[in-house]
Specification:
Pfam families: Response_reg
Protein name: Two-component system response regulator
Strand order of the largest sheet: 2-1-3-4-5
Low-confidence stretches: 1-5
Structural class: alpha/beta
CATH topology: Rossmann fold
Mean pLDDT: 87
Number of helices: 5
Radius of gyration: 14 Å
CATH superfamily: Response regulator
InterPro entries: CheY-like_superfamily (IPR011006), Sig_transdc_resp-reg_receiver (IPR001789), TCS_response_regulator (IPR052893)
Number of domains: 1
CATH class: Alpha Beta
Distance between the termini: 15 Å
Keywords: Phosphoprotein
Strand content: 15-25%
Shape: globular
CATH architecture: 3-Layer(aba) Sandwich
């Protein structure tokens, strides 16, 4: 991770509190400094990403973990909106869902998801996968630099 990004900002878009807790646990158990932000559906994610309403001072995420099946605005709709928005499309967006459907995989990549990962059913495997995501985006991948005003280059 670049020295200009001392903290990995992660937006978790997930309606299942149990899955959110597992992601939080996997991110907490490591040396990568990170802050997880959570919203329960795509509608709230858009408000967060656009820094509107209660999220007026929200940071720009370095990474989005996105579930597909959620109420109101689902992950499929949100992914399309993120990747069509010039201000948001550079944020790496990982579809992290229970679906293993070939059509979901294809449509997610067609909408420019950066990765599609089916959530493992086994707790140990689930944690391992989240740790791998965290390590890749926290150590290996070069991410857009975030400025103090929250914009990226």
């Amino acid at each position: 991770m670049s020295a200009s990004l001392p903290l990995l900002q992660v937006l978790v878009v997930e309606d299942d509190p149990g899955d959110v807790a597992l992601v939080e646990s996997a991110f907490a158990e490591h040396s990568i400094s990170s802050t997880l932000h959570h919203v329960a559906d795509g509608a709230d994610a858009l408000v967060f990403l656009r820094r509107e309403g209660p999220y007026g001072d929200a940071p720009r995420p370095d990474l989005i973990l996105l579930d597909l099946n959620m109420p109101r605005v689902d992950g499929r709709q949100l992914l399309q909106q993120i990747k069509m928005d010039d201000d948001l499309k550079s944020i790496p967006t990982i579809v992290f869902t229970t679906s293993a459907s070939a059509s979901d995989v294809l449509s997610s990549y067609a909408a420019h998801a950066n990765a599609f990962i089916t959530k493992p059913m086994n707790l140990d495997d689930y944690e391992r996968v989240v740790i791998e995501i965290r390590n890749f985006y926290g150590h290996t991948a070069a991410l857009p630099r975030r400025h103090s005003d929250g914009t990226a280059t």
